[in-house]
Amino acid sequence: MKIEFAPRNIPLARRLQTASVLLWLVLTVLLATICIIIFAILIINNYWFLYIPYLVWFYFDLQTPAQGGRRCHWIRSCIVWRYFMDYFPIHLIKTQDLDLSHNYLFGFHPHGALTAGAFGNFGTNHSAFKKLFPGFTAYLHIISILFICPFFRDILLTTGLVSVSKKSISSRLSRKGGGNISVVVVGGAPELLYAYPGSFTLYIRQRKGFVKLALTHGAHLVPVFSFGENELFDQIGARDRTWIWIFQQKLQKFVGGILPLFYARGIFQYTLGFMPYRKPIHTVVGRPIPVHQTLHPTRQQIEELHQTYLEELSKLFEEHKGKYGIPEHQKLIFK
User: Fold this and answer.
1) CB-based burial of residue 253 (10 Å sphere; 0-12 exposed, 13-18 middle, 19+ buried)?
2) CA-CA 20 to 30 A from 70: which of 76, 201, 229, 307?
3) Domain carrying residue 264
4) Do 125 and 206 touch, CB atoms closer than 8 A?
């Protein structure tokens, strides 16, 4: 394999973009493990004056991720995230105005390898969100287990990320007067195995909890498709459905979730590594689906709204795919 090295005369701005994405990768993939190790060292070495106060704080702060979080606008506005957005770059596109008197539930698709588009647009202050949706507050909901990791949870909360638990989503969608947007990456862990270039498979047919929550609280549903999300990383064995990919799929069903074997480019070379490709991401926010509040929705009502959502998601994809280089014959595949 011939390695293609990056030229020496790369502009400073591009180097800063690379550094910002590298920081994001460390935060996303490694920091939780590092924080657990640090906490274990404190306990092993009996630094009780450090870990006991933290455990007390943890106990009283346990419900914060399910009650709107604790965002820090200084962190969300940090210049690091501006360079992060410019690396790909990431764009947010609005197709229709939203009524500030309502709450909304955004269904984000696809999951992608690390949901870069979701984080950039809804987890930082450097996207066009405030300009496109003035007066609204967006809450990006992520897997709840991350909020029991010592220290790491506190870092996540500063960016405005909150738990994806039922209680957390309900607390945002039940706000009187409207103005809240819950962003849920619907596909979850099972969709990770379909996160590779050229893939348009969404794991959604059995994902109906978000629809039930929208009905329960009368929150309008909005499909969101992030074009380019799956183009950031390749995945070993995925395109050809090799035994490696098949084994990962079986393992995922058994353990509930795994991190597939992703790869892309390197830091100082373009041939192989774990840095995402510089591919543009266009996150398109579709038309809202009006939802009338039903405190105790029936299975039929959930099924009907779920089907309507799938139809609107397909329409959104069909209307915009040509703008982003997707072949006319390509359709969304629902699993």
Assistant:
1) exposed
2) 229
3) 12-334
4) no
Give the integer Cα–Cα distance in Å for 126 and 84: 9
Task: DSSP for 233-258, please give it.
Answer: -EETTTTTT-HHHHHHHHHHHHHS--
Domain count, the chain: 1
The Cα–Cα gap between 111 and 311 comes to 19
**Nearest-CA neighbor of 223 among 179, 184, 189, 279?**
184
Rg for the chain, CA atoms, rounded: 20
d(CA 171, CA 260) in angstroms, rounded, equals: 33
- Quickly tell me which residue has 């984000």 as its tokens: 108
How does DSSP classify residue 9?
Answer: T
Domain presence at residue 28 = yes
Assign 181 a pLDDT band (cuts: 50, 70, 90): very high
- CA 230, CA 199: separation in Å to the nearest integer? 7
- Contacts of residue 137, Cβ cutoff 8 Å, sequence gap at least 6: 179, 180, 181
pLDDT of residue 190: 85
Question: Tell me: the pLDDT tens digits for 113-171?
Answer: 999 999 999 999 999 999 999 999 999 999 999 999 999 999 999 999 999 999 999 99
- Is 6 part of any domain? no
301: tokens are 């009502």
